[in-house]
Amino acid sequence: MSALEIRFERIVDSWRELELLAAQEHIEIEEQRDFNPDWQSMAILNEAGKFQVLVARVDDKAVGYFTWLLDFDLESKGTLIVSQTAWFVESKHPIVGVRMLDRAIEEWKKIGVEFAYLHHGIKGRGALLGRLFERRGAALLSHNYMLKLKDEKKDEKK
């Protein structure tokens, strides 16, 4: 029987393992941006307590991560919020993703977060996460769009 552990980890200690998982995610969701995680900035924000990462390990091997930014809502003074950022779990561990979300929600409640802003992509396994968010009590608030402003191929011809 495999041992699952979901725990907070420091970016400076885990970034190499996380990069391997992030590379899998990049392929799965057909990401348009170049694969080049900014581990230094993440580490700085992590050390400051603003960026948190939960890592799921099965028999001590990293199989997933769930990250968020902790901040105050600038449009509602004194309101502590979190914005979910990157979240990925290897496909052979589907229930781990649910457990990671539940662990994050537990933590957010413990530290006094008033609102959590969750998102999911439209490609890959994450496309169905809206239903999970709704089962946890979240309501659809908005749609996000990405406007690509730089076309590398055109820029190279100039």
Q: Which geometry do the CA atoms define?
A: globular
First-to-last CA distance: 58 Å
- Rg, Cα atoms, Å: 17 Å
CATH architecture: 3-Layer(aba) Sandwich
Across the major sheet, the strand order is 1-2-3-4-5
Give helix % range. 25-40%
Query: What can be said about the biggest beta sheet?
Result: 5 strands, mixed
Low-confidence stretches: none
Alpha-beta classification: alpha+beta
The percentage of residues in β strands lies in 15-25%
Tally of distinct domains: 1
* CATH class placement: Alpha Beta
Name the average pLDDT. Answer: 88
Keywords:
single chain, 158 residues, Aminopeptidase, 5-stranded mixed beta sheet, 24% strand
Would you mind describing this structure in some detail?
- The protein has helices spanning 11-28, 39-47, 94-111, 129-135, 152-157, and strands at 4-8, 51-58, 61-72, 80-89, 115-117.
- It starts with a strand and ends with a helix.
- It is α+β, with helices and mostly antiparallel strands and 158 residues long.
- The model has no long low-confidence stretch (mean pLDDT 88).
- The protein has a five-stranded mixed β-sheet with strand order 1-2-3-4-5, with helices on both faces.
- It contains five helices and five strands; from the N terminus they run βααβββαβαα.
- It has a single domain (4-157), classed as Gcn5-related N-acetyltransferase (GNAT) (Aminopeptidase, 3-Layer(aba) Sandwich), CATH 3.40.630.30.
